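Work Package 4 report. The design task specified in the project plan requires that, given a folded chain encoded as structure tokens, an amino acid be chosen for each position. We show below one input record used in the internal validation round.
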């Protein structure tokens, strides 16, 4: 199976640890999140997966996240896994990321590809001070499109 166009949409939440100040203008925090994700392929098939993400973000003194990264692990209802990485960045005033897929099990074995994502998020507590001084939960919606080659999906 050749690479196929896919549209991805996800909603969920991520918990940040207490940030550590890196310098006068930047903090860093680890995070872990859980999301429900839909992969809508160009051939009309949709796959729904649970996604777990673990990573590190940087936050400036205005509460913006200029960069971050994380490991992605998706699991479908059959227990098959898709793995990858996200690299977060800010561009044109928006939070964006590149999801790169590199391995999987079962129907996701041999999967590869890249998808450009757009992230919209807010603190669960809308009155929370940013940057936070302690742990904080964010809720978010992530969407994007790109190409994935998943040979196992055609079996």
């Amino acid at each position: 199976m050749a690479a196929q166009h896919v549209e991805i949409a996800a909603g969920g939440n991520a918990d940040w640890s207490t940030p550590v100040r890196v310098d006068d203008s930047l903090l860093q925090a680890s995070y872990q999140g859980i999301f429900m994700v839909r992969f809508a392929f160009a051939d009309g098939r949709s796959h729904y997966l649970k996604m777990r993400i673990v990573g590190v973000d940087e936050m400036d003194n205005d509460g913006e996240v200029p960069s971050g990264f994380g490991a992605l692990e998706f699991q479908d209802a059959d227990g098959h896994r898709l793995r990858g990485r996200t690299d977060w960045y800010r561009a044109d005033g928006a939070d964006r990321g590149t999801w790169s897929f590199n391995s999987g099990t079962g129907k996701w074995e041999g999967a590869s590809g890249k998808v450009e994502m757009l992230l919209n998020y807010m603190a669960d507590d809308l009155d929370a001070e940013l940057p936070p001084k302690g742990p904080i939960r964010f809720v978010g919606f992530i969407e994007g499109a790109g190409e994935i080659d998943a040979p196992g999906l055609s079996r």
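The first strand starts at residue 4 and ends at 16. Validation will be extended to a larger panel in the next phase.
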